């Protein structure tokens, strides 16, 4: 057997072993990429589910706070401040505060901007209502101005809901 035959045989064996090794490494890399894609997809799905839950709760609690303010104003107007249920209003305010705080940690800027406007409007009306309840309204604050400001929040809530739905991919606009 001559040297060239040995070299050719060694090269053939090395090529076969090398090809198997390269195939195995390529397969491992493809499997690793596939696992990363699955993990990224799962993470995105979990993130969307977390945002959806947060948005549902924030929307619900903001609407309940708005309704509680409306109910509170009606009772103040019809029966006076002695008849109001301040605990119900406080519970609605606290629930909304908690949900808004959670949204601040996970919502994108557009949703947060809309939710922040709702939060600010709710707190302003709440402040007006409490000052009216104490008999110490600010300049220009009346039951009518508080009721008007409370009524305007409903449109802000619709805008916030639309931003949330767009973020979740539920709609492209309403």
Task: Please tell me about this protein's structure.
This protein is mainly α. Helices cover 86% and strands 0% of the residues. It has 4 helices and no strands. The chain has helices at 3-79, 86-106, 109-134, 143-168. α1 packs antiparallel against α2 (86-106), α1 (3-79) packs parallel to α3 and α3 (109-134) runs antiparallel to α4 (143-168).
Radius of gyration over C-alpha positions, nearest whole angstrom: 31 Å
Distance between the termini: 84 Å
Q: Name the overall outline.
A: rod-shaped
- Using DSSP, what is the number of strands? 0
For the report, how would you describe the main beta sheet? none
Short précis:
The protein is mainly alpha-helical. Helices cover 86% and strands 0% of the residues.
Overview features:
4 helices, mainly alpha, 86% helix, 174 residues
């Amino acid at each position: 057997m001559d040297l060239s035959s040995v070299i050719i045989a060694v090269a053939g064996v090395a090529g076969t072993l090398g090809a198997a090794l390269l195939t195995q490494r390529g397969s491992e890399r493809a499997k690793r990429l596939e696992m990363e894609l699955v993990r990224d997809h799962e993470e995105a799905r979990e993130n969307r589910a977390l945002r959806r839950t947060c948005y549902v709760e924030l929307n619900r609690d903001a609407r309940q706070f708005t309704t509680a303010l409306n109910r509170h104003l009606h009772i103040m107007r019809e029966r006076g401040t002695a008849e109001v249920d301040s605990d119900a209003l406080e519970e609605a305010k606290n629930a909304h505060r908690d949900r808004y705080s959670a949204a601040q940690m996970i919502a994108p800027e557009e949703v947060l901007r809309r939710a922040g406007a709702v939060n600010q409007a709710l707190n302003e009306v709440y402040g007006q209502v409490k000052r009216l309840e104490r008999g110490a309204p600010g300049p220009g604050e009346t039951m009518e101005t508080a009721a008007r400001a409370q009524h305007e929040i409903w449109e802000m809530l619709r805008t916030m809901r639309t931003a949330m739905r767009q973020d979740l991919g539920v709609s492209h606009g309403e």
